[in-house]
Design a protein that fits this description.
By secondary structure, the protein is an all-alpha fold. The protein folds into 2 domains: about 5-30 and about 110-334, Rhopdopsin 7-helix transmembrane proteins (Up-down Bundle), CATH 1.20.1070; about 35-90, no CATH class. The chain is built from 13 helices and no strands. The chain has helices at about 5-10, 15-25, 35-50, 65, 70-90, 115-135, 145-165, 170-195, 205-230, 235-265, 270-285, 300-305, 310-334. The longest helix is centred in the C-terminal third of the chain and has 30 residues, at about 235-265. The protein is elongated.
């Protein structure tokens, strides 16, 4: 007979793996906007007329855009994207991507304003989790609390870098966003295992297991960043690495949910399962990528919007779980 954890592994492993692989490995259309002859000609003329010391016109760039490192050439690129997109819509042609991105209408110099807004919403969810859930409601004696505090702090960093990247897409902002997201996914797998197997307990066996698990995860992250930064910036590898960690994390949390539900018979014990499938549903929006509504809201921004509620719900689960564990421990000691 299988243990509860083994049973949940068998039940939940195939679905997240298939679903996530389908999302990330589905073929994507190539970006053709920046290859259009009319776009290239527009940029060339704009730069000739507006950029450089011999330009016919030198339109000043507003301060708030200069602070976000908009230059004359990047202004030409943005303006031509909007011009070509408007022409294509007027002539009944489909909207196309430029450099792998939809031609969003910027706001206050932000390239993808709604992705920025929803990234900040996720940031707020982690601030809420730390300040109103973890710190005031989880007893200090609960040994998982430091792991949850670090979860919230890492989430804040991750979503801050996400907002920065969607504000202005540069190589450095992209790398910071990817490395922070990778750390967040890997840490999710890390502390899920710690909670499920109770490697946070102050026993020699648990401490030994925790040291080994910590060393393994740190080594994996160092190798991951080293490969991307020093060897090759590989989008496919990065996706597969995150998918693998995400699948393992989902299996672990669903396993814990089943174990805790059998112990408590309380609905809150199943909230991690709700979170897992909610996030998978939000991620599925990437399957239905579409030209941005009102030139502002696309599937990726809606994905970011969809991850806010499950983050809040998950912090509530962590509190319920911690309080129940502490209450059971107190009853055993009584």
């Amino acid at each position: 007979m299988k243990s509860p954890s083994q049973g949940m592994l068998g039940r939940f492993a195939p679905l997240p793996l298939f679903f996530l692989a389908f999302i990330f490995l589905a073929p994507a259309a190539a970006s053709i906007g920046d290859q259009l002859p009319e776009f290239k000609k527009c940029v060339e003329i704009c730069k000739y007329e507006n950029c450089g010391p011999d330009a016919l016109h030198q339109t000043p760039i507003p301060l708030h855009r200069r602070l976000l490192l908009w230059t004359c050439p990047s202004e030409c690129d943005y303006t031509c994207q909007q011009i070509i997109t408007a022409q294509r819509i007027e002539s009944g042609q489909p909207v196309v991507q430029f450099y792998g991105k939809w031609p969003f209408v910027r706001f206050l110099g932000m390239q993808e304003p709604f992705s920025v807004l929803f990234s900040l919403g996720n940031l707020a969810a982690h601030v809420y989790g730390l300040r109103t859930q973890v710190r005031p409601r989880i007893p200090a004696a609960f040994t998982m609390r430091p792991f949850y505090e670090f979860l919230a702090k890492l989430g804040m960093v991750t979503w801050t870098f996400s907002a920065i990247f969607h504000t202005r897409d540069f190589q450095i902002t992209e790398q910071l966003d990817y490395f922070a997201a990778g750390a967040s996914v890997l840490y999710g797998m890390y502390y899920a295992a710690v909670r499920l197997f109770r490697w946070d307990r102050p026993t020699e066996t648990a401490r030994r297991a925790l040291r080994r698990w910590t060393a393994l995860c740190l080594g994996l992250y160092i190798c991951h960043v080293g490969y991307l930064r020093l060897w090759r910036w590989d989008y496919t590898y990065n996706m597969l690495a995150c998918v693998l960690c995400g699948v393992v994390q989902n299996i672990l949390w669903c396993s814990l949910a089943w174990v805790r539900y059998r112990q408590t018979r309380q609905p809150w014990a199943l909230w991690p399962v709700v979170v897992v499938f909610w996030v998978l549903g939000a991620m599925s929006l990437e399957l239905f990528d579409f030209p941005p509504l009102w030139a502002a809201i696309d599937a990726h921004s809606l994905w970011h919007l969809g991850t806010i509620p499950p983050a809040v719900l998950f912090y509530h689960f962590l509190v319920k779980d911690a309080q129940d564990v502490m209450a059971r421990s107190a009853r055993l000691k009584a």
